[in-house]
Amino acid sequence: MRLIRKGLVGGALVGALALIPSAAEAQAQSVAEPRTVTVTPFVGVSFGTPTDLGSSLGVGFAVGYDWTRNLGFEFDLGHVFDVAGDDDNLDWSLTNFSGNVVYHFDVPRVTPYATLGIGWERSNPDYDVPDPVALRVGSSTEITWNIGGGVKVPFGERLLARADIRRFQVNDFAPDHWRLYGGLTFWIKR
Known about the structure:
By secondary structure, the protein is mainly beta. The chain has a single domain, classed as Porin (Beta Barrel). About 10% of the residues lie in helices and about 55% in strands. It has one helix at about 1-20; strands at about 35-45, 55-65, 70-80, 90-105, 110-125, 140-155, 160-170, 175-190. Strands 1-2-3-4-5-6-7-8 form an 8-stranded antiparallel β-barrel. It is elongated, with a radius of gyration of 18 Å. The N and C termini lie far apart (about 45 Å). Residues about 1-5 and about 10-30 have low confidence and may be disordered.
């Protein structure tokens, strides 16, 4: 199973990096533009839980507002289907909602960024065969914070390719984890 997990992570990284050279023509303009609204649907993979529960696919979307060329804000909703991918007795879904500050670095053609956010995570473990002796964690909603970064690459007039990695830390029973995703960002107001 570890080979499969490493294959998923490696495949996601290769896919994200493959988007960089495919950017239409080299553009000298900065990706982040003041007073711009963006929407990013994404597909990702989660991994790196403290007890090595496994990895899982996830989906989500983000809505962002670039206040200046460097500073932006973003609201992000993501869902992980089963963060305990290696456990046949446990299906553990996670849903995150967070508000994030995004700082874009001044680099032409490709824009790296750093992000820091806080929000809520809904954790929903589902056991196939309950064990009355073992301590079982129930569903919960907890405070979570995240830190990470990524890269945005212009891919046409109103489209960006985006790769992002973030670490989610939760305050109680839900598992801390990494999320790696690739998405397409659409400019709504420009």
